[in-house]
Design brief:
heterodimer, A: 320 residues, alpha/beta, Rossmann fold, 8-stranded mixed sheet, 5-stranded antiparallel sheet, 12 helices, globular, B: 348 residues, 4-stranded antiparallel sheet, 33% helix
């Protein structure tokens, strides 16, 4: 069985800054993958590279493989990538106000995807757009279809963007911090909506976020990124219960949580991430790591921790 | 215990300009719409709620950075509403603000040393050598090398900039600090560092905090008391432990129920209750209880009568008719409101 998405040894450079340093992962049809990391970890740059959205003048992208449903995207012409985006691959971003065109109605923008990717007539597209809005839980969809993005609240705008993303009948949905700008009650609703459409349409889902608590609800498998690399990859149940990389351990214990006794304060990871415009020698996390030892001057590869999981840490080899 | 900050019947209304020449024509936004709040010395009070509920406006109004439309604001017993600019400036030395975005709150062209010395100069606390000494001292307190005085804000990471902004807030030894979403712009691993710093400073300088935040999980670990705001009002005010264990207002329950926990087994099993409808405009709050159009437990009285904060339990009040007579509210019905909304609500 071929994976829906396969990425091998992906690198992204912006001038001297080496933002993504050899990222590899696979996603099966209908699977959901969480990519978690802090700002500058390379999580968004990785996904933008996959769908060819980096500006070629600013970013240098190279990879051993980037394939979507068996198709090699590395040398795909821009016209082909444009067909894929909005069609086979849909994206939902943090800020729907920048992704939606302020000059067109919600109905028109969803209809545009239906016309372009599904070849519907103008009239059929406009009827189907109203259905899409209703499908993503926008009340009074007939009237809402005639309104402009600024007339929607943040949560409703995100629903419009999800409707537009689904209109092209994608097989892969990339969600990059889609709920970060939303209030917590609205965030919970959008998470439910995306989970629901993923299950109904058997979508492959990649959810990029800094929020480990949120991923616990949506991801089957989690990649933890640090300084442009995957430092741990594991099924969600394993990663949260028994994280192996000291960075994952630190990240999990710095999340403030409601289910722990009060006074059990979140613990900070000292220091900050390394600069990416200079070579990183050895393990990138070593300077902040409380468990570093002699071996860490060498960069650790991803070492298997179980049948289906790996961590880039020498402690794994040391059996600790 | 002495009262540090106090609001009585406080309202802050803004008139939205419609553009055009008739500046008086726009709708009135009732950002803060009738609030009583007392903060005692040494307390950390958290103000939580979703965007547009008025929490930031209330925080600013307590420092009189917003002009009240009605009501009174006091700082250490002094009425701030009627003060002349000169007298207000004197009071301001005792109360400071920390903002969400440390990059926006630091002048990019001012060296760190100058930025930190400025409040000392403005309030006539120190100049020259004494100011330089105070700057070096406060930098060490917030965990930065005193040698950074010659550098500019852009040379620092987000977490370091927030340390500088906090140093600037506390260098004049205020008694009261309002921190408005001081962690929201920071990475999670750094947030915990800044929380530790707030705790250190509180102990060292005997500070009183108002912590404005949308993040309930963070608030739980720092606050002594929590005030929950909805559409310009405080709907629940309680000791932190009580509020998180037994939230009394249906809105507080919905907020807490929406917070995810990093535990896949638990998260996948959790049924999230959805609040019907959308947040009404603060220009036209609903009649009766402001939360009633979205409340899963709405009763006839809620549509007509606006509830005041009612006693629920020791150290806990909620603006909700369910608590009209605490003794009459059977425990079973309160348990039904618990966090784990296991059964679907009727949608109104």
């Amino acid at each position: 069985m071929t994976a829906l998405l396969e990425v091998r040894d992906l690198h992204v450079r912006f001038g001297a800054t080496h933002a993504v340093r050899g990222v590899s992962f696979e996603l099966g049809a209908g699977d959901s993958l969480g990519v978690v990391g802090e700002s500058g970890s390379g999580k968004s740059a990785t996904m933008l590279a996959v769908i060819g959205l980096h500006d070629h003048r600013a970013a240098k992208v190279s990879a051993a493989a980037v394939s979507l449903a068996g198709e090699d995207l590395r040398h795909a012409p821009e016209t082909r990538l444009r067909d894929l985006r909005g069609g086979t691959v849909a994206m939902v971003f943090q800020d729907p106000l920048t992704a939606l065109n302020p000059l067109y109605t919600a109905g028109f923008q969803i209809g545009e995807v239906l016309r372009r990717h599904r070849g519907l007539s103008r009239r059929a597209a406009s009827t189907a757009a109203v259905e899409m809005l209703s499908h993503v839980g926008v009340p009074d969809p007939r009237r809402r279809a005639t309104q402009y993005p600024h007339q929607f609240s943040g949560g409703m705008r995100q629903r419009v963007m999800i409707a537009a993303a689904l209109a092209g009948e994608p097989r892969l949905l990339i969600a990059d911090e889609p709920t970060t700008a939303l209030d917590v009650t609205v965030q919970a609703e959008i998470v439910e909506l995306i989970r629901d459409v993923q299950a109904r349409n058997d979508l492959g889902l990649v959810w990029v976020t800094h929020d480990l608590a949120l991923l616990a609800r949506v991801a089957d498998r989690v990649l933890v990124m640090y300084a442009g690399q995957v430092v741990e990859a594991a099924p969600a149940a394993e990663l949260y219960a028994a994280p192996r990389h000291p960075y994952t351990v630190g990240l999990l214990s710095s999340v403030a949580r409601l289910d722990q006794p009060r006074g059990e304060r979140a613990r900070a990871i000292p220091g900050g991430p390394p600069r990416l415009d200079q070579p990183i020698i050895g393990c990138a996390f070593a300077p902040r790591c409380s468990r570093r030892f002699a071996r860490c001057v060498e960069a650790p590869p991803l070492l298997p921790t179980s049948a289906n999981a790996a961590a880039a840490c020498w402690l794994v080899e040391a059996g600790a | 215990m002495s009262t540090v900050s106090e609001a009585l019947g406080l309202k802050v209304h803004f008139r939205l300009s419609q553009g055009g020449w008739n500046r008086r024509s726009g709708p009135v936004i009732r950002a803060v719409d009738g609030i009583d709040l007392t903060i005692e010395a040494g307390e950390t009070v958290a103000l939580v709620g979703e965007s547009g509920c008025g929490k930031s406006t209330l925080g600013r109004a307590l420092l009189r950075l917003e002009e009240p439309s009605a009501g009174v604001v006091r700082f250490e017993g002094h009425d701030l509403t009627g003060l002349s600019p000169e007298l207000l400036r004197r009071q301001r030395a005792g109360m400071r603000m920390v903002f969400q975005d440390p990059y926006a709150s630091l002048n990019p062209r001012m060296r760190i040393g100058e930025a930190l010395a400025e409040p000392l100069r403005v309030h006539g606390l120190a100049t020259g050598r004494a100011a330089r000494h105070a700057v070096a001292e406060i930098l060490e307190v917030v965990g930065l090398d005193p040698a950074v005085v010659a550098r500019y804000p852009h040379e620092f990471s987000g977490g370091q900039r927030q340390r500088i902004a906090i140093a600037r807030a506390v260098i004049g030894r205020p008694r009261f600090v309002v921190a408005d979403e001081p962690l929201s712009a920071l990475d999670i691993s750094v947030q915990a560092q800044i929380l530790d710093l707030f705790a250190d400073l509180k102990a060292r300088f005997a500070l009183t905090y108002l912590f404005v935040s949308h993040d309930l999980a963070v608030v739980r670990h720092v606050a002594d008391r929590v005030a929950v705001m909805y559409l310009g009002r405080i709907v629940e005010l309680a000791e932190a432990e009580t509020l998180f264990m037994r939230p009394a207002h249906p809105y507080t329950q919905a907020l807490l129920g929406a917070v995810p926990t990093p535990d896949p087994a638990r998260e996948r099993a959790r049924v999230v209750a959805r609040l019907p409808g959308e947040l009404p405009s603060p220009a036209a709050p609903p009649a009766g209880c402001r939360f009633h159009p979205r409340c899963p437990l709405v009763m006839p009285v809620c549509r007509t009568d606006d509830p005041a904060l009612l006693h629920v339990d020791a150290g806990q009040t909620a603006a909700c008719w369910l608590h009209r007579r605490a003794e009459a509210a059977a425990p079973s019905s309160l348990e039904r409101l618990g966090l784990s909304h296991a059964h679907p609500h009727h949608q109104s």
